[in-house]
From TrEMBL:
Superkingdom: Bacteria
InterPro entries according to UniProt: DUF2147
PANTHER family per UniProt: BLL6627 PROTEIN, BLR1215 PROTEIN
Keyword set includes Signal: yes
Ranges where the DUF2147 domain occurs: 33-137
Signal peptide as annotated in the record: 1-25
Sorted UniProt keywords: Signal
Protein name: DUF2147 domain-containing protein
A Pfam family matched in the record: DUF2147
Gene3D superfamilies membership: 2.40.128.520
Length: 139
């Protein structure tokens, strides 16, 4: 194979990979945006690294991280705290971790887009005992 032919093959492969990305977003696979949780908080999800991160944009209740096990963080405001790190692609979604301000614990978790307006989010203990929520996109 000539160098020219090898470069052309590489360029075509790269182009095919780029073309696959928008297809996911068009099918509702891109979870970037603001989401309403089942408890009424809002989470802003954005690209970070090879996946997505979610930061609290609004909360219900006191708005303070009172359940955090670190005494120094119990008085911090929850708005602006990153609660979702989902940077490992897995199936139709991403795996990572979730911080739950209601109990101050971090869980292994997953995030899977379900169409353009819903996001399935699950947090698990030992990857066996899981709780899930369906978040709704804020328009």
């Amino acid at each position: 194979m000539t160098a020219s032919r090898a470069l052309r093959s590489l360029a075509l492969a790269a182009l095919a990979m780029l073309a696959a990305g928008p297809g996911l977003a068009q099918r509702g696979g891109d979870p970037s945006g603001t989401w309403l949780t089942e408890s009424g908080a809002r989470v802003r999800v954005a690209r970070c690294g090879g996946g997505y991160c979610g930061t609290l944009a609004s909360t219900t209740g006191s708005g303070l991280d009172v359940n955090n096990p670190d005494p120094a963080l119990k008085s911090r405001k929850l708005v602006g705290v990153q609660i979702l790190t989902a940077t490992a692609p897995s199936g139709d979604g991403f795996e990572g971790s979730l911080y739950n301000p209601n109990d101050g614990k971090t869980y292994s978790g997953s995030m899977t887009p379900k169409g353009p307006d819903h996001l399935a989010v699950a947090g698990c203990v030992l990857r066996v005992l899981c709780k899930s929520q369906t978040w709704t996109r804020v328009k």
